Amino acid sequence: PEEPVLLAELKPGRPQRYDWKSSCETWSVAFSPDGAWFAWSQGHCVVKLIPWPLEEAELYKTSERKSRGGKGEARSRGVAKEKTLECGQIVWGLAFSAWPAAEAGETDPACAVGLPCLILATGLNDGQIKVWEVQTGHLLFSLLGHQDVVRDLSFAPNGSLILVSASRDKTLRVWDLSRDGRSVQGWRQVQVLSGHVQWVYCCSISPDCSMLCSAAGEKSALLWSMRSYTLIRRLEGHQSSVVSCDFSPDSALLVTASYDACVIMWDPYTGEQLRTLRHVPLHSVLDYSSEVHTSSLRSVCFSPEGLYLATVADDRLLRIWALELRSPVAFAPMTNGLCCMYFPHGGFIATGTRDGHVQFWTAPRVLSSLKHLCRKALRTFLTTYQVLALPIPRKLKEFLTYRTF
């Protein structure tokens, strides 16, 4: 694949006047499930909601977007307008909801029960989770319960409006924002998951909504059942803190990224380590003195078709990895990267940086083979154990369980 090309860079402009604690880092970026919106925690307690795609003038040349303050800055693009969400606290985590499935007699159950058709949850420095209506930019409600920074958020991809939050208070909390989750006291907190002894950095719900992975400042990641909210297993193999995790689109693979400069690919059903991707310094590309932890990983994510991974590390590189290879197939120099996220339909990667910027990169466009499409379709509803029990040749089982690397 070709090297990633920087298409656009959006900058927060002149920082608004907040106290020194209102840091400027972009800790989180997110695309809505349909790809129509992009959210960017640009620092200084502000989240930008931007209609996608960016205008051509912005997408094909590096551009700067100035903050003028206030919600009236939205520029018109048909119905969708850019919005500024004033969160009042440093924003760490972002997650869009998927649409609930329509029920008989309802055109859109989300709207029918008083919720908007698309919502954005923001995890804040004081432990609050603020939930916003995307189309209007209005604050709908706050979720209270965490005692410290809400570091990451993940909505169940099936549109059930189950939200998982990960916090520095060392817990994960499960919230039900559906009609059934509403009570007189507010939205229902389904479960508190305790098991980590350090700050929880990351949470990821599998696309089939059966599993939850969480990563804290520990050498092991935890895998939970989303049905019983109990711990399935500890994934042990890293030599330093695990800080990021993501499931493949068919839920058959799980990747974890650590400060030990490695990404481990797991079979979440068996707990086996399938392979390790090591971030080797590329001194020919970069000119800096070798230091400990220069390759500390910050973020890892799967591409939408499940054939590539993107990683951001402290060695100032965005790397693209092919699933079956042990070294990067493409990389691009970037500064101070903190997070990365694929566009839901492929072709782009968004990265957030420590100085509050967000960058958009080209990503390899791939035509999945018929073999991979069949594997992905089967693995969407078959566990590893169910595949191994099938009366089919061993080589086919190895392919279907991603053991042909």
UniProtKB/TrEMBL annotation:
SUPFAM superfamilies named among the record's database cross-references: SOCS box-like, WD40 repeat-like
Keywords, sorted A to Z: Repeat, Ubl conjugation pathway, WD repeat
An example Gene Ontology biological process: protein polyubiquitination
Pathways per UniProt: Protein modification; protein ubiquitination
Domain SOCS box: 369-405
Cleaved signal peptide residues: none
Placement of WD repeats on the sequence: 120-142, 143-185, 193-234, 235-276, 290-324
Pfam families: SOCS_box, WD40
Record's protein name: WSB2 protein
